[in-house]
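#random but structural
TW: two for the price of one
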Amino acid sequence: MKNLSNTKIWNFDPMLQSEYFVLDQNIFTIDKTPEDVFFIENIAEYNQMQGLALSEEEVEYLEKLSKKAGRRLTDSEIFGFSQVNSEHCRHKIFNGKFIIDEQEKEKSLFQLIKKTSQENPNELVSAYKDNVSFNAGPEIEQFAPHSADKPDFFEIKKINSVISLKAETHNFPTTVEPFNGAATGSGGEIRDRLAGGKASLPLAGTAVYMTAYPSENVFERQWLYQTPEQILIKASNGASDFGNKFGQPLICGSVLTFEHTENNKFYGYDKVIMLAGGVGFANAKDATKEEPQPQEKVVILGGDNYRIGMGGGAVSSVETGNYADTIELNAVQRANPEMQKRVANVIRSLAESDGNPIVSIHDHGAGGHLNCLSELVETTGGRFDLSEFPIGDPTLSAREIIGNESQERMGILLKSNDIESVKRIAEREKAPFYIVGETTDNKRLKFEFAIAK
């Protein structure tokens, strides 16, 4: 539902074009310097200013945490909490208590969803605890090079497989910028399948769209960013474009349109629903991640950090149009299927090897490094050196380095003695390879600037 008085009128594509009143050399001038880490005096005010979507309870929790620590919290700490604890990442509504007609329901929505597999597990191997779900698959023949760090002969060997299944929505980005929104929806869903267990491989994808009516309709209306017609055309192009360039076919999908008026209010999918899904497979022996141990190395595969996708986890969790245009536009990711393909080639090589060295693996989606790295070291804790992170934009602050959602990156845990062999494969595939930290034994997440080696 949307109040038409609050809508915006664009006469150009706000993601791809800008209005300049004077075209001169100054448009190329960069006078910005990285912001220092600073302490937040008023958390509630900072929450509104940055579009962090923190609830009153969460603001109160952070204020109590600040008192307990005996100091003000930093911008990075509050921003980080808003991303990892966002509705998008934590599913607080699905996990919450439901009270209907003053009666509290016995189960949450998520418990009801999980009930199906609990009562009918059938051939289920893993669900609701990883980036994908796995079902038992057949014995198959793997056709792959004997080694991946140099040219080598291909060989055939039989392996037991598991089938991966994944689906996720990418609604907010596709509403704001349909092409990149749907492209990164498909790309992110592929990365989730790559990150299943100790690495799994994608095979084919699907895409579903739900919008208001795309044709001229009964109601005169203005749209927040894109019309339903623009969304359907651009989003379809974006999802297909990513799949084509990455090398995964988009094999099926569907479209549902809906509008309704009642009591002078218009209802419809003003915030498009974009559902990306897919199937793949993994070696059955790699269907479960290993338990991280202290002093294992944290490696990032993929591209540099840019001021892209800032706050996407939080902004995706509320009604589109709640925040200023700059906040919402800055929260949209950009697709880079070629980079993702390089990274996927490395992961495929490790997954097809006799001794897969990956301890654990996660993709960089909503929340960027904050979510990926915190999940990798959740059971141990981790220390990260910001001077080792690849910086594409020298004006990034510490908060922007750890929180951006630049595409396309994967985080993996490796034992020290496996670093060099994996690095050789990455160099051969031209996939950027960075050692950014290591696991600890204190269950604390620490980002710091050390002297660059």
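TW: number two ↓
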Amino acid sequence: MKRTIKVGIIQQSCTNDIHYNLSKLHGNIEQVVAAGAQLVVLQELHNTPYFCQTEDTSMFDLAEPIPGPSTGFYGELAAAYGIVLVTSLFEKRAAGLYHNTAVVFDKDGSIAGKYRKMHIPDDPAYYEKFYFTPGDLGFEPIQTSLGKLGVQVCWDQWYPEGARLMALKGAEILIYPTAIGWESSDTKEEKIRQLNAWITVQRGHAVANGLPVVAVNRVGHEPDPSGQTNGIQFWGNSFVAGPQGEILAQADNVKETNMVVEVDMTRSENVRRWWPFLRDRRIDEFGNLTRRFID
């Protein structure tokens, strides 16, 4: 029997006013719920601007314990609207120990599970290694009332291994809250290459695993507080792909966008019958994948 899920995507810009950001998120969640959303996915670190453009110890004050104030806020929204909600929070685990953590709430407002970002970048304007300890929860799908969600975060989306492990553990959909954009000195051609690579690699995860993919990115320009760069223009383009990589819906790179996309969760079964990649994997030859490099 056909089973569908209506996925709500919220692509928005962020300001320095956290209360305003939360209020806007609340309003946008209300809008997608009114349009039928059952599963709502927010972008990476949605409560605040992307603070990792600089290394500033005062930014650790933004972190919260889990459970904490933000989980209380989003749990109440999930329960009030009867939705499964995927959030992205700056977790304070202990003094000096912080994670970039996705928290998933079920329809009753309870925490269904969390995922700590595993791959931590350290690039100009993306100084995440200063703030985040790599995750230690593994690639474990989160069981919800709508099914098993394979949630990862941003930089994780470039690595096929994480998507594969989620699929092998029974994930029914792959989800990536994201904060990625262009640096102003890049040429137009380079910007196009970067965006196309970002979309292509995630569509590849859908194809290779026979699973739908949801990627939700922020949008808008955020200045560099240090003034050393011209800041980041987050490129939006949030999208949902089906299990053959087909684009079901996609936002643009400028506008704040709320979308509700119907995803056929039974389609993966047929796709995997046509393309039985899991059957034909040569797992007896994959041992070297655990090595950094094969000299």
